[in-house]
Amino acid sequence: MSNFVTIVPSNPMITFTNEFKDKYPSVFTKTPKQGLSSRYSFVDSEALIHKMHDIGWDLNRIINSRSRTEVSKMHGKHMMIFRDRSGLSVPDPRNPNKPMFFEIIATNSSDGRSALKFDAGLFTLVCSNGLVIKSANLGNLYCSHVNINYDQLHEMIGRFNNYVDYGKERIAKFANHQIDKQTAIDMASFVAKARFGQDPTSKIDPNELIMTRREDDKGDSVWTYMNVIQENLIRGGNLSRNQRRTRSIRNMNVANKINELVWSAAEQVVGV
């Protein structure tokens, strides 16, 4: 589940409606899950949003993990995706008229299961998907809920800028490397393990995962195929071996694994 958030850059403060807070309670909780050790370091996600806004990074959207209990609803893992106010982007090789935005993805929870983590991400307008750049873990920040350190955030932004150059270089390699259909099928089978387990071809024909959904996706480059594979796995709608249509991915961890594997598969194909 996701929500697109519009924040006017000139606003000195960010305000959220009660309706919005009720939709994303894990982001706005002010206490950790009961029963955690006194040594647990709680990070206030709302405070982080304000701090990121202060240094020029605006909240674009929030993705919640699927919650089955009240505890996970209030304290479960969530992703906050930020974009640089200057609109840091690069043209999509599939359609140069459509930009791809570099993003910072902050993953947090207050249930004691995961620390605050930042990753570099890339959002493509062609298919409205977010690719997490593999190996672009910007590091974990262990911050007190009383005071999130600006110096730590600025250091993290500095690491992010290095990954932007890395991302641009990789995208160019992916876009300029043409592959045959069998190589694309092999890529799809490798990435599909994140969703279907170690033997994905027993559950879905890999040909289903390289089927294009739009004109922009017609082509034989690694870049085109990796985006097609990612979208088919995450959005679903493909015919499985039991003749049923696959469902869209709602599990944040599975979606993240698909993102990581599709980038890794592309790097293996181009030899970097």
Shape designation: globular
- The amount of beta strand, in percent, is 15-25%
Report low-confidence residues grouped into runs of 5 or more.
Answer: 1-12, 142-146
Derived from helix and strand composition plus strand pairing, the structural class reads: alpha+beta
Q: Which radius of gyration do the C-alpha atoms yield?
A: 19 Å
Helix content: 25-40%
Oligomeric state of the chains? single chain
Number of strands: 7
Question: Count of helical segments?
Answer: 9
What's the end-to-end separation, in Å? 34 Å
State the order of secondary-structure elements, H for helix, E for strand.
Answer: EHHHEHEEEEEHHHHH
**Count of separate structural domains:** 2
Largest sheet: 7 strands, antiparallel
How much is the average pLDDT?
83
Written account of the structure:
- This protein is of the alpha+beta class and 272 residues long.
- The chain has two domains: 2-170, no CATH class; 181-270.
- The protein has helices at residues 18-23, 25-28, 45-54, 70-75, 150-176, 181-196, 206-209, 222-235, 252-270, and strands at 2-4, 57-64, 78-84, 89-92, 95-108, 117-124, 129-140.
- Strands 1, 2, 3, 4, 5, 6 and 7 form a seven-stranded antiparallel sheet that branches.
- A hairpin with an 8-residue loop joins strand 5 and strand 6.
- The longest helix is centred in the middle third of the chain and has 27 residues, at 150-176.
Features:
single chain, 2 domains, 272 residues, seven-stranded antiparallel β-sheet, alpha+beta, 21% strand, globular
Short description:
The protein has 272 residues and is of the alpha+beta class.
